[in-house]
Amino acid sequence: MRRRARAPAGPAAAAGFTLLEVLVALAIVALALGAGLRAAGVLTDNAARLGEVIAAQWCADNQLTALRLARTFPGVGDAGFSCDELGRRYEGTLVTRPTPNPSFRRVDAVMRDAQGHTLVTLSTVLTNQ
To answer: 30-69, pLDDT tens digit by residue?
Structure first.
């Protein structure tokens, strides 16, 4: 006949977790939550930055399109401009440079943020027609 093993009687027989096991589990959960909060914050910052860059790109594209529609051959040099997009004011510079072919001009629309960092640069080539 086989004998069954008996569970010891008394306080040692109580099932559950030790204080150390609970503290380790809480530390792991706290680290995971902290990493999740940090990742959510970074995603929020990136979304705001992307919105700012897209609005600046619209401003630059509008300026270059206006130049194309004007059908005038721009002179070489720099010209400042500003526009409002999505409730924000953007400052930009149209940088016009000659090309090896005198019938063309390269125009760059450079958009900067309030601190002077370049957000976006769009380029086009205009012809003398």
So the answer is: 999 999 999 998 888 888 889 899 999 999 999 999 999 9
Please give the order of strands across the beta sheet that includes 88-98: 77-85, 88-98, 104-112, 118-127
Q: Is the pLDDT of residue 24 over 90?
A: yes
C-alpha 5/C-alpha 120 separation (Å) is 75
d(CA 106, CA 126): 6
Enumerate residues 6+ apart whose C-beta is below 8 A from 7.
13
**H or E element: which one contains 118?**
strand 118-127
Q: What one-character DSSP code corresponds to residue 8?
A: P
Rounded (10°) CA dihedral 14, 15, 20, 22? -130
- Number of residues that make up the chain: 129
Strand positions, DSSP E, 3-117: 77-85, 88-98, 104-112
In whole angstroms, what is the distance from residue 119 CA to residue 85 CA? 14
